[in-house]
Amino acid sequence: MFLIGMGALLVLCGILYMARAAIWRGPLSGPDSSRPVRDTLEPPRRGVRFLGLGTNWPGILLMAIGAVLLMWGASF
Question: Do 60 and 53 form a contact (C-beta atoms < 8 A)?
Fold first, then answer.
């Protein structure tokens, strides 16, 4: 039971870490927020850099360890 709980906690922490990295990546309007307001708050090219492995590896690692613990706990 302890392994299942710890695995679930690690998976949840990994998801929250990756969500935090995506949300708090930076201001939506870019480094120069003194520009006039456009029709949208989104910048013209945000990119998908925040979804890459370089910024999310700790979250992916936490989720992988949690998944292993979940499967190991479920096998007993």
Answer: yes
Question: Based on the number of CB atoms within 10 Å of its own CB, is 21 exposed (0-12), middle (13-18) or buried (19 or more)?
Answer: middle
Tell me the two tokens of residue 70: 């979940």
Alpha-helical segments (H) within the chain: 2-23, 53-74
Tell me the pTM. 0.69
CA contacts within 13 A on the Cβ side of 2 = 0
Tens digit of each residue's pLDDT (9 = 90 or more) over 7-56: 999 999 999 998 888 777 665 555 554 555 556 666 566 566 656 777 78
Residues 6+ apart with CB under 8 A from 16: 59
